[in-house]
Write a structure and sequence with these properties.
Blueprint: H1 2-10, H2 13-16, E1 21-25, H3 32-41, E2 57-64, E3 83-90, H4 98-104, E4 116-124, H5 131-157, E5 169-174, H6 184-202, H7 204-208, H8 218-222, E6 245-249, H9 260-267
Helix pairs in contact: 5-6
The chain binds guanosine-5'-diphosphate (GDP).
Length: 270
């Protein structure tokens, strides 16, 4: 019985339910716990301690879709005011635990109702002007996008329509209430520049071999993020794999644009 109890307490909730899931990832300190708590309990919730469990922490959220001037990208998506129910899975930001996060992505895009619909990559926009923090965040993003790209490539090769191959990603630039925070456009360009460097250093062997894109096998190209052998990485290059990336600034605490735009983005992808 204790073993069963332990299993029930630690099991990933989403494996027990059948709700569409949004995966919340990002480096430690980005504000994942704060965002998940705010979405679960509303803006007046007291901040909670960052949970230290090594399990993904799923919370079930039932909430009305906010009204917005922008149209839903999918006509089948929920409309403003409609109540939607979904799971937000807040994942540990520690490097060693990332494999678990990426394993979770294996459930993405499958045809079941409980699949992961989208990924929110939360980062601290006030920390991204620091080279170490930028490197750390960009390395996480690079690895995340590469996992998504490999899965999409496999599907494309299997002949699936592009729209069904990739998954939408929101780069949520948090802490815009701080005056040191970079605006969304700078978050995008800084992350792209750093991912370009990471990609180049990881793939040095690949390019040094001097073979062109047409000659290298698909396996080698699977190790390269974005447009093969391109000089500069841009988020738009992921479109080739059906992966759309949006960058939107916001803040969980303090004064600023808040979480409304992120929430709209998520609601429209359920
Ligand atoms: P996690 O490691 O990604 O789960 O990050 P936490 O949710 O524990 O947040 C890390 C710290 O950032 C906490 O002290 C939060 O209160 C703080 N934080 C989260 N969001 C914001 C924000 O929008 N603005 C500011 N100024 N601080 C924030």
């Amino acid at each position: 019985v204790p073993v069963l109890l332990h299993f029930l307490l630690t099991a990933n909730v989403s494996s027990l339910t059948n709700l569409p899931t949004i995966l919340l990832v990002g480096p430690s300190g980005a504000g994942k716990t704060a965002l998940a708590t705010r979405m679960e309990r509303g803006p007046d919730a007291q901040p909670t301690e960052t949970h230290t469990t090594t399990n993904n922490h799923s919370i079930e959220i039932e909430t009305p879709v906010p009204s917005s001037s922008s149209e839903s990208p999918s006509s089948s998506g929920p409309s403003a005011g409609e109540h939607v129910k979904f799971l937000l899975t807040d994942t540990p930001g520690h490097g060693k635990l990332r494999a678990r996060v990426f394993n979770r992505l294996d459930a993405m895009g499958e045809n079941d109702k409980g699949r992961v619909r989208a990924v929110v990559f939360l980062c601290d926009a006030a920390a991204l002007s620091d080279p170490d923090s930028l490197r750390h965040a960009a390395a996480y993003l690079h690895d995340l996008l590469l996992v998504l790209q490999r899965r999409a490539s496999a599907r494309i090769r299997a002949g699936a329509p592009l729209a069904k191959c990739g998954n939408p990603v929101l780069v949520a630039a948090n802490k815009l209430d701080l005056f040191t925070a970079l605006p969304g456009t700078a978050v995008k360009s800084n992350l792209e520049a750093e991912v370009t460097r990471i990609r180049a250093s990881r793939s040095k062997r690949l390019l040094d071999s001097g073979v062109g894109a047409d000659e290298v096998g698909s396996e080698a190209q699977d190790d390269w993020l974005g447009e093969y052998a391109s000089q500069k990485f841009t988020f738009e290059q992921m479109g080739e794999f059906g992966i759309d990336i949006d960058v939107i600034g916001g803040n969980v605490t303090g004064e600023g644009p808040g979480i409304e735009k992120w929430w709209q983005w998520m609601a429209y992808r359920l």
